[in-house]
C-alpha cells in the first residue's frame, strides 16, 4: 500500500517535507552553479571560496546533482521528499567523517577544508531532522500517517469517510436506531432509555398478537383462514350470522 495514501497533499507533514527539501536543494544548487561559474579545475585539492566554503569542479557538480535530486523529490511528493532528505543527511554525515581524514592529502578530491567538514555535519543534522520528523519517535499520535502505515491501519481519511457513512446510515434509519445504539453502548439518556423500552414493549405486543392470530387460524378450515385474511369478508360473515 502506497504511503501517499496515508500522507495526502494537504497534510502539514507533506508540506513540511516538500518545502524543506526544496529550500535545501535550492541552496546546494546555487552553491554548485556558482562553483562551476568560476571554472575551477575539476579535481583540484585546493579549492576556491564559494559562499564561505571551499569548492572545486567536482564538488560543484556533486552539489548541483544533489540539489537537483532534492528539488525533484520535493516536486514528487512528501513521502519521497522525506525519505530522500533522510538518506542524503546520512550521506552528508559519512562525507564529513571521511573527508576529515582526507584533508591535506592527495586524496582530497573534493577540496574539503575544516569549514566543509563542519558544514557536512551541520547539514546532516538538518537533513536527518527534516527526513525523520514525524516518522521516528516514541510519542507519535495514533493518527500519525506513519504510525497507521506501520500498523497496517487504514488512512485517516478512509476512517473519516467510513464514520461519516455510518453516521448517514444511522440518520437514515431514524432516531430509534440512534437510541438503541446509545443504550447498547451505555451512554443513553433517560429519554432514550424510555423510548427504547416503549419500542421493545410495542414489538413484544405485536409478536404476541401475531402468535395469537396464527394460533387461532390454525384451528379454522381453509375457507375460514382465507376469509380471515380479508376483513370485509369477516364483516359480511358476521352480518349473515346476526341476520340468521
TrEMBL record:
Residues 212-244 are annotated as: Disordered. It comes from Saccharopolyspora griseoalba. Residues 220-231 have a biased composition (Polar residues). Pfam families: DUF4383. The keyword Transmembrane applies. The lineage of its organism: Bacteria, Bacillati, Actinomycetota, Actinomycetes, Pseudonocardiales. This is DUF4383 domain-containing protein. The chain crosses the membrane at residues 16-37, 58-77, 83-102, 114-134. Keywords: Membrane, Transmembrane, Transmembrane helix.
